[in-house]
């Protein structure tokens, strides 16, 4: 029979190891699995799985224990990273949004300039005149009409940086279905 393939029995959840988290592209969990959505299961009905999970993911440990909750989360391996941070199995961290305060933003500055052309006719008489550039310690004013460049008191406004608004902190994602095997082969420890 060239080109044909025959399976004597359909694949079952029992062919998977108990406690395995499976990823699927369909919108349901197959028989013998439950969604990895933090649901509480009864210990009395899932003793073998409870012996593997305990209360790592939640539950009271007397009558219930929880499944991992992978909704809006990215799983990664337990252990210590190169920076020295240690991640225990079942620990959760991170946020979907992040609010930066002014103290968290890098410091920076801006310059502002104003070019003023001095008039040829200056006076030290302030009546009907405008402040002008002059030698230090003198009262110098423009006589007659005001100069073509005039800096009003409200010409520049300095605002605080930021605004403490939340920004999206999520990486690009594709939503799929994570399921936990609740009926299967008990895994050996070695």
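^ structure tokens above, recovered residues below v
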């Amino acid at each position: 029979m060239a080109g044909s393939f025959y399976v004597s029995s359909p694949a079952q959840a029992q062919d998977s190891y108990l406690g395995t988290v499976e990823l699927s592209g369909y919108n349901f969990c197959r028989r013998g699995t439950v969604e990895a959505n933090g649901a509480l299961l009864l210990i009395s009905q899932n003793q073998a799985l409870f012996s593997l999970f305990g209360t790592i993911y939640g539950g009271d440990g007397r009558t219930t224990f929880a499944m991992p909750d992978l909704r809006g989360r990215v799983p990664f391996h337990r252990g210590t990273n190169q920076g020295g941070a240690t991640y225990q199995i079942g620990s959760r961290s991170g946020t979907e949004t992040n609010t930066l305060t002014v103290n968290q933003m890098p410091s920076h500055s801006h310059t502002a300039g104003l070019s003023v052309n001095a008039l040829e006719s200056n006076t030290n008489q302030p009546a009907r005149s405008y402040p002008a550039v002059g030698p230090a310690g003198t009262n110098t004013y423009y006589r007659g009409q005001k100069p073509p460049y005039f800096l009003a008191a409200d010409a520049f406004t300095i605002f605080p940086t930021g605004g403490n608004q939340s920004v999206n902190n999520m990486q690009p994602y594709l939503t799929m279905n994570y399921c936990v095997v609740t009926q299967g082969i008990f895994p050996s420890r070695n």
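Residues 131 and 153 are 13 Å apart (CA to CA).
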